[in-house]
Design brief:
The chain is an alpha/beta fold. It contains three helices and five strands. The relative contact order is 0.25.
Length: 123
């Protein structure tokens, strides 16, 4: 696909990893967009930061750990992965608590990315 045909797609992951299917569906959507060679960015906000937590263990609730799939994003060419500084602070998390390298963004930078995106998807 030519660079001119690429869309800037921004995925906002705002839900915790378990309790509903939004996290798994968000991961599927991001991977699908990446396969079609789109310009994909992912931002983890609010409780969505727990999708990247090293300490996720769904064994007690007998669910598959789809959150491990987020670590595969760079393999699919999704290199722009961010996490909200405010969300990390809100839940007393640090970058060291996350399962993959990410860049932190202040809310003002997140708003700029939202303004520049062609399409925004929220999960």
């Amino acid at each position: 696909m030519s660079e001119a045909g690429k869309k800037r797609l921004l995925y906002l992951i705002t839900r915790p990893p378990f309790g509903d299917a939004y996290g798994a569906e968000g991961l599927d959507a991001v991977l699908a967009a990446a396969v079609f060679d789109q310009d994909v960015e992912v931002i983890f906000l609010e409780e969505g930061v727990f999708q990247l937590s090293k300490n996720i263990d769904p064994t007690p609730i007998a669910m598959k750990n789809h959150a491990k799939g987020f670590k595969a994003l760079p393999i699919y060419g999704v290199e722009k992965v961010f996490v909200s500084v405010e969300a990390l602070d809100k839940f007393a998390l640090s970058i060291d608590d996350l399962s993959m390298p990410v860049e932190t963004l202040e809310i003002s930078a997140i708003k700029e990315k939202m303004a520049m995106a062609d399409h925004i998807f929220s999960f």
